[in-house]
Amino acid sequence: MILVTGCAGFIGFHLALRLLRDGEQVVGLDNLNDYYDVSLKQARLKLLEHPAFTFVQADLADAAAMKQLFDQYRPQRVAHLAAQAGVRYSLQNPSAYASSNLTGFLHVLEGCRAHGVQHLVYASSSSVYGLNRQLPFSVHHNVDHPISFYAATKKANELMAHSYSHLFRLPVTGLRFFTVYGPWGRPDMALFSFTRAILAGKPIDVYGQGEMKRDFTYIDDVVEGVVRVLARPAQPDPGWAASAPNPATSQAPYRLYNIGNHSPVELRQVIATLETALGQTAVKRFLPIPPTEVPATCADVTDLAAEFGFEPSTPLATGIERVVRWYREHYRFCQSCAPAVPN
Predict the structure, then answer these.
(1) Given 97, 122, 129, 150, which residue is catalytic?
(2) pLDDT tens, 198-221?
(3) Consecutive sets of 10 residues in the chain, 343 residues long: mean pLDDT of each?
């Protein structure tokens, strides 16, 4: 039995679908909050209907509900992907991040500890690299300077996970995702929001003259990485030394990996590729880079490739074509159902 938290979310949905296709028994948890279009989450859940899938609607921050979940289903492995998402929204509503990403993660750790879960894999983020400008970003770099509260909560998750791994020998693996995109994506993320705006003839917000670089990573590559990692519980690093501590490993069963395409692309190139796929030109509104954003991201996936024989490789143009195809198909019968475009 595998527990997937955030199963109605973008990555959680795709992971749950893959696990079901692989013949796994899956329990999915989601609170179906209204951070973005709930009908999109419900449409994802509709595709997860399967004899081997059980859906539980509950909030991570609800201690009693989380205890009941673990007591009832006793999962052997946990893929914790639920969180309050969005970097910029953390400026407006930081308490939502503390509740979900900190208190909620504690409840997941407690459930895993109490029931001897074989492996906890949880979503971290490339945003933990913060002020670090040494590219590519490596899991062996120091990440003590986050520039958003969202990033701070993800860094805190890594520290919390290590403490439980050390104290209770709980195998835990953190995965730092880099700009994940694909069909069924979140409406607040760039490719979805750009597609929506361009088709509606509305302007798109382009930060920093489009010169920011992001390591766009296709959803199928991310899911493949999660599945491989989930199947192999973290082990203590016999070479770990307290005198020269490696941030990515430990004497406890604890690991960190990047999952990214290792191929950063300028935002203006992403927009040009999207315009080609849509057959329409974007109206661009240029804005300064927000204080929550970094100039560039790039994942060093050396450890992932060496230990799991895998690294993301889907070309951006291929991924964008699939996003556009999905968007047109999903909203073709009801264009008015598409999320409203902000003015």
Answers:
(1) 150
(2) 999 999 999 988 999 999 999 999
(3) 98 98 98 94 97 98 98 98 86 90 98 98 97 95 94 97 98 98 95 94 92 96 98 97 96 98 95 96 93 93 97 96 96 58 50
**In angstroms, rounded to a whole number, what is the distance separating the alpha carbons of residues 256 and 151?**
15
Model's pTM, two decimal places?
0.94
Which run of H or E residues covers position 283?
A: strand 283-287
Query: What value does the CA radius of gyration of the chain take, rounded to a whole number of Å?
Result: 19
Q: Is 242 exposed, middle or buried (0-12, 13-18, 19+ CB in 10 A)?
A: exposed
Q: Which residue has the tokens 């692989």?
A: 22
Active site residue 129: no
Q: Which of 105, 43, 112, 26 is nearest to 71 (CA)?
A: 112
Peptide bond into 295 cis (omega under 30): no
Local structure of 234: helix, strand or coil: coil
